[in-house]
Structures are given as structure tokens and as C-alpha cells.
């Protein structure tokens, strides 16, 4: 079993996506492999999850897939994974991915990706997760979400300065990996001391 922490990559399992999204996911896997960092993902055999795994493996790296039992029982796991970790359910899957990682990248994805991304952002807010959370906004995929989050901030539904502390935004695979491996901002001020 891998002993050093990797980067959790959250992304789509859909197989009906534009080529640019696949290229970005494959490059994230490749970039992590070239830097000797394991990919930690949902272990799926399709979509951007598969592309991330394949990018890492093809570059001589490691890809660790974390899947709940019901997915493994249905054969949804990628056959080329370096390591497959079985969990009891989706909650344990997300906790395991976070525990094995020192940072996280959200590539384009759907509801599942959003849920994983926002959970890590929430955990960062609560100081339960200290690694960086990077939103990879390739092809402007997250533009509208980022606009909405800016609106949420402007309307004071976030504490002052929250966006800058809780997530980073990258526009390419290489930039996302750079940001995910950089030291995370320390969240220790009035924001986390209950003085707001």
C-alpha cells in the first residue's frame, strides 16, 4: 500500500465529453506521475476518471482508486489501477480519498464532482482538511459557478476573504497540479476563531 500522500482528483465518470476535457484529465495524471505523486481518484473505468488514471500509469506513476463495494461488485473499477481500495459506502470513500491526499483538484464534472469539491471546501473552512483545493477551470467550465460564488461572497453569505482562503482556480492541468502541490494557505485568524 502507498505510504506517501497523493492528490485527490475529483472528476466526471461520463464518457460523452469533449476531447479537451479528456486531454486535461490525462495531463493531470501525467503531471502528477512525473512529479512522483500518486493520483487518488474514484477509480472508475470511464470518463475523466479513467483518463486521469491512464495518464498517470502511462507516465510510470501510481493511481489509487477508492470505490465502495457496490461499484466494485458491478465492475466499475478501472483494470489498470495500481491499487484498489474497497470502502463500505460513499461516505467512507470520500473520507478515505481525503485521508490519503495532501491536496485536491476538481476537474470538470457533474453533481458528484460538485459534492466532493464542496465537501473539501467545507472541511477547509472547518480546518478538518489542510491541503489546497484547486478548481481546474479548463475551457471556462466553472466560469458560471465561480460567478455565483462571487455573488454569494458579495451578499455576505461567506465570511470576509473566504474565497481566497478556501480554494484556488487554475486554467490548465499543469497549473492545477502546481497549485495542488504548493503549501496551502493557513486559515488562522478571526475567521476561524469565532470572532466574526
Summarize this entry quickly.
Helices cover 43% and strands 16% of the residues. It has 8 helices and 7 strands, in the order βαβαβαβαβαβααβα.
What general outline do the C-alpha atoms trace? globular
Radius of gyration over all CA atoms, rounded: 16 Å
The strands making up the biggest β-sheet line up spatially as 4-3-2-1-5-6-7
Number of helices: 8
What is the arithmetic mean of pLDDT? Answer: 93
Low-confidence stretches: 188-196
Q: State the total count of DSSP E strands.
A: 7
First-to-last CA distance: 43 Å
Order of helices and strands: EHEHEHEHEHEHHEH
Structural class: alpha/beta
- The share of residues in extended strands comes to 15-25%
Main pleated sheet: 7 strands, parallel
* Helical content class: 40-55%
Can you tell me about this structure?
It is a single chain. The protein is an alpha/beta fold and 196 residues long. Helices cover 43% and strands 16% of the residues. It contains 8 helices and 7 strands. It has helices spanning 19-34, 47-58, 69-73, 90-99, 111-125, 143-154, 162-166, 173-181; strands at 6-10, 39-41, 63-68, 83-87, 101-106, 133-136, 168-170. A 7-stranded parallel sheet has the order 4-3-2-1-5-6-7, sandwiched between helices. Helix 3 links the parallel strand 3 (63-68) and strand 4 (83-87). It starts with 5 loop residues before the first strand and ends in a 15-residue tail after the last helix.
